[in-house]
Amino acid sequence: MAEDCVFCGIVAGKIPSSHIYEDEKTFAFLDIAPIARGHALVIPKTHYRNLLDLPEEEVGDLYKAVKKVALAVKKAVNAEGILILQANEKAAMQAVFHSHTHIIPKWVDDPINKVLSEFYHHAQKPERSELEKLAEEIRKHF
Predict the structure, then answer these.
(1) What is the DSSP track for 95-110?
(2) Other CB atoms within 10 A of residue 38 CB
(3) Is 127 domain-assigned?
(4) Residue 82 to residues 70, 98, 135: CA-CA distances in angstroms?
């Protein structure tokens, strides 16, 4: 547990949360600044900065909980879909440096879809040869 971590404080019961799920390794609660009704966070109980620091043997446990919470939230708010968002490091807009996964209910006519579609308008369109060269470079790091 990190002393100055708000999520560690939530797991320890020192900071209030609207708790929705808990198992041996994970804890889930509603976001206090939701993007949509039912927006929840799933976190490992142990403090890890983000997914990149999470031990491989714990990733499966985390994402089993993410799926359970996503299904429950979807049913509870009658969502048409679920956006699962996980940011790692400041450059990726991670704001709380305790690994956490957002479960965000979505509907077809959701106003945030305009923002998300703008995101996709900025997608690059590289040539296949460029993709293959990059894929080769990435494979070197496994």
Answers:
(1) -SSS--EEEEEE-TT-
(2) 22
(3) no
(4) 7, 22, 29
Cα 10 to chain centroid distance, Å, stands at 17
CB neighbourhood size of 85 (10 A): 13
Please give the chain's pLDDT, 142 residues, in tens. Answer: 777 999 999 999 999 999 999 999 999 999 999 999 999 999 999 999 999 999 999 999 999 999 999 999 999 999 999 999 999 999 999 999 999 999 999 999 888 777 777 777 778 889 999 999 999 999 999 9
Order across the sheet with 81-85: list the strands: 19-22, 26-30, 40-44, 101-106, 81-85
What is the distance between the alpha carbons of residues 87 and 107, in angstroms, rounded to a whole number? 22
| The two structure tokens encoding residue 36 | 């949509």
What's the CATH number where 85 sits? 3.30.428.10
141 is an active site residue: no
Q: Which amino acid is located at 72 in the chain?
A: A
Active-site position among 100, 102, 121, 122 = 100
> Residue 47 falls within a domain, yes or no?
yes
Using CA atoms, how far apart are residues 110 and 125, in angstroms rounded to an integer? 27
